[in-house]
Design a protein that fits this description.
Keywords: Membrane, Transmembrane, Transmembrane helix. This is MFS transporter. GO terms for molecular function: hexuronate transmembrane transporter activity. It is a multi-pass membrane protein. The protein is mainly alpha-helical and 424 residues long. The protein has a single domain, classed as MFS general substrate transporter like domains (Growth Hormone, Chain: A). The chain is 79% helix and 0% strand. It contains 16 helices and no strands. Helix 2 packs antiparallel against helix 15. The radius of gyration is 21 Å and the shape is globular. It starts with 7 loop residues before the first helix and ends in a 9-residue tail after the last helix. The mean pLDDT is 85.
Length: 424
């Protein structure tokens, strides 16, 4: 193939990566401040689970709303609205005075953050050919991990020098800086002045008009392919929320990790997730380049990733902090590799005009799972904390998390056995 005159699509990926990093930085702040806020506001584990649930419920609603809206108004405007709302919400946490007000601001944060993935997946589908989408998704999705790595470095430092309120203000303000670059540099491929004709043809930018009318949701919900994505998100997203919101306190409770200082264990764990996200996207792209079918490329890779998460079931038998870090690092890396391919399934199964809507529907399902799972988490941990054995509660949760991905892959295979794109 002749060399492309431009590779502007990778600059688009960098914008998506930056936004996703900010997205996860903002949502991760509260988990790192949890021990401090528990002392200040006298929270129980159940109180904290309710705050997490407020975010998850709003996030579910936001996911499906932005999914519907972005297929109609486009990624540029939709993403801008999303980032503006969540950045304001993140900063408002600084004036919270009790668990209820934290819940209100977490809900507002969720209402904004739900636009991140529908907009990003829509942009990747428009800007990349099928064989590169999983890799591009893996790159921007690695921002979830970079945000989780930056947070343990930045938040404790701000906490120690300026207090917990400043941690919310500083991290929330970063989104407004990103908005300037997004508005200047992003446009759909067909209208972008910096893309060459060769690159436009290469990415398929002329094959489907971005102005096609969006599909009807009821029609989408009748399709098995939609339910394949829904089940994948419903069963595995709660595991990632558990990793984000409870791993810091698990390490603090079990191994006395000090969350008021930059935490090397958390940095290692979330850094490994970055490798998994990019590597997981690259692997399926490599299989496709070798002539494998989309069906085999995605499912074989996702089966391997699912197996890599199973070992967290034996964390209860680990005798040292570093053994636990190794098992958790493997699990979060495998989750992000899984996630990059799960999101890419949508563009495998649906035309461009339906991608954001399906991502929104599936994302809502994943968020509802994430909304219900904290009820179990909070109840288990409070029960076993009262018995003097909170570690037992965590062990039960790790068994549930370790088995979720194999069940999810079975559901995906039964609902979409050949990964053939549906017409819409």
């Amino acid at each position: 193939m002749p060399k492309l005159q431009t590779n502007y699509r990778w600059q688009i990926t960098s914008l998506l990566f930056a936004a996703t990093t900010i997205n996860y930085l903002d949502r991760q702040v509260i988990s790192l401040l949890k021990p401090t806020l528990e002392r200040v506001f006298i929270w129980t584990e159940t109180d904290y689970s309710h705050i997490v649930m407020a975010f998850q419920g709003a996030y579910a609603l936001s996911f499906v709303t932005f999914g519907w809206g972005i297929d109609r108004i486009g990624s540029k405007i939709g993403y801008s609205i999303s980032v503006f709302i969540w950045s304001i919400a993140a900063m408002l946490h600084a004036i919270a005075s009790n668990a209820f007000s934290f819940g209100i601001f977490r809900a507002l944060l969720g209402l904004g953050e739900g636009g991140n993935f529908p907009a990003s997946i829509k942009a990747v589908t428009e800007w990349f050919p099928q064989k590169e989408r999983a890799f591009a998704t893996g790159i921007f999705n690695s921002g979830t991990n970079i945000g989780a790595v930056v947070a343990p470095l930045l938040v404790p430092w701000i906490l120690g020098h300026y207090g917990w309120q400043a941690a919310f203000l500083v991290t929330g303000a970063i989104g407004f800086i990103w908005l300037i670059f997004w508005w200047i540099y992003y446009e759909s491929p067909a209208r972008h002045k910096k893309i060459s004709a060769q690159e436009l043809v290469y990415i398929g930018g002329l094959s489907q008009s971005n102005t096609e009318s969006a599909v009807n949701w009821l029609d989408l919900l009748k399709r098995r392919q939609t339910w394949a994505f829904i089940m994948g998100k419903l069963l595995t997203d709660p595991v990632w929320w558990f990793f984000l919101f409870w791993l810091p306190s698990f390490l603090a409770a079990t191994f006395h990790v000090d969350l008021t200082r930059p935490s090397l264990p958390l940095i290692i764990i979330y850094s490994s997730a970055t490798i998994g996200s990019v590597g997981g996207g690259y692997i399926t792209g490599y299989f496709l380049q070798r002539g494998w079918s989309v069906n085999w490329s995605r499912k074989i890779a996702m089966f391997v990733f699912a197996l890599c998460i199973v070992p967290i079931m034996v964390i209860q038998f680990a005798s040292s902090l570093w053994q636990v870090i190794g098992l958790l690092s493997l699990a979060v890396a495998a989750h992000q590799a899984w996630s990059a391919n799960l999101f890419t399934l949508v563009s495998d199964l649906f035309p461009k005009k339906a991608v954001s809507s399906v991502v929104g529907i599936g994302g809502m399902a994943g968020s509802l799972g994430g909304l219900l799972f904290p009820i179990l988490v909070g109840s288990l941990l409070d029960t076993y904390k009262a018995l003097g054995s909170i570690t037992t509660g965590y062990n039960i949760l790790f068994v549930l998390c370790g088995s979720a991905y194999l069940v999810a892959l079975l559901c995906i295979h039964l609902l979409a056995p050949s990964l053939k794109q549906t017409t819409a």
